Amino acid sequence: MSFNSCRDRHCPKCQASAAQRWLEARQADLLPVEYFHVVFTLPAPISAIAWYNKRVIYGLLFDIAADTLRTIAEDPRHLGAQIGATLVLHTWGSALTHHPHVHGIVPGGGLSADGERWIACRPGFFLPVRVLSRLFRRRFLEALQAVHHRGDLQFFGEYTGLADPATFARWLAPLRTCEWVVYAKRPFAGPKAVLEYLSRYTHRVAISNQRLVAVDERGVTFRWKDYRAKGRTRYKTMTLETGEFMRRFLLHVLPGGFHRIRHFGLLANPVRRANLAKVRDLLHVAPEIGPSPDDALIETRPAFICRHCGAPMIVIDILARSAPIRAPPMRRGQT
């Protein structure tokens, strides 16, 4: 028996089929070049006020990270090319703490300013992370100051005083000199590895069912990874009181309609198809031949796949929701 999916994007059980469909659509976007993984992380003080301003601050995180990548890539001292990027928002740490950051998947190169040449980056190296970090810090703080001036930020509890412009300016001052974490991992081992990585990250939620160990009178026990430890001691278990577990999980519920996967530059939705066709032409790569419209009408991919055998599941009946069964009314004096 398979119960109806709630289809909520924060549900750990309802994202597998959505992730698979998204990945199949992205296969046509892959290029025969190196791909790099870049991560932009917000410092803890800004993460604290992001709890109350998710739409504004997460939106800034996307826009400033993408703008930083494109600005440094267009600089002739670095790459001198127009690039594209896919950014995925994550807001959690392994222990369900609030840790907003974006994962960027970036092709290793871009189009020249005139759009007539493909400029590849150096093998194994994309852009200098220190330069990215400095520019990301400066532009994010400038944008944060601007949205505060417009009155778009809300403050509660111990942060209520930050509504005052002078207090907010003093609060921002230390953030202009501390290090902001931006790092780049080694390039992926080919386009297939990119898809395998995306399948783990695009539709992930704050916790998966596999990490849950027990739910009992003590609370909820789950596995987590301590990145400060080394070796096997990294993997630990934690037990939280049920209310605290739910509080931590709900920290990562996004505002309605907020997109947590976004494409920028050459990969932006309105221009992606034309740009990819031009890049493939410059790289002398034959475009993949997809199914014709007639074939698509004849054969459509099933929406439900058995997770055990991989065979398509055929819907034989849909049960309409009925009224809940109610107990008979109790007589007066009856307990």
Q: What fraction, in percent, of the residue positions are helical? A: 25-40%
| Percentage of β-strand residues | 15-25%
Give the class from helix and strand content and strand pairing: alpha+beta
For the sheet with most strands, the description reads: 5 strands, antiparallel
Q: Which assembly state applies to the chains in this document? A: single chain
- Tell me, what's the shape? globular
Kindly give the count of domains: 2
- Total of helices: 9
Overall average residue pLDDT: 84
Quick synopsis:
One of its GO terms (biological process) is DNA transposition. This is Transposase. The chain has helices at residues 16-26, 44-50, 54-74, 129-149, 165-172, 191-201, 242-250, 272-282, 293-298, and strands at residues 35-41, 84-92, 98-107, 109-111, 118-120, 182-184, 212-216, 219-225, 235-240, 261-265.
Structure notes:
This is Transposase. One of its GO terms (molecular function) is DNA binding. It holds the Pfam family Zn_Tnp_IS91. InterPro entries: transpos_IS91, Transposase_32, Zn_Tnp. One of its GO terms (biological process) is DNA transposition. The protein is an alpha+beta fold and 335 residues long. It folds into two domains: 217 residues, no CATH class; 42 residues, no CATH class. Helix content is 31%, strand content 17%. The protein is built from nine helices and ten strands. The strands form three sheets. It has a five-stranded antiparallel β-sheet, with helices on both faces. The chain has a three-stranded antiparallel β-sheet with strand order 7-8-9. Strand 7 and strand 8 form a beta hairpin. Helix 3 crosses helix 4. The longest helix is centred in the N-terminal third of the chain and has 21 residues. About 4% of the residues have low confidence.
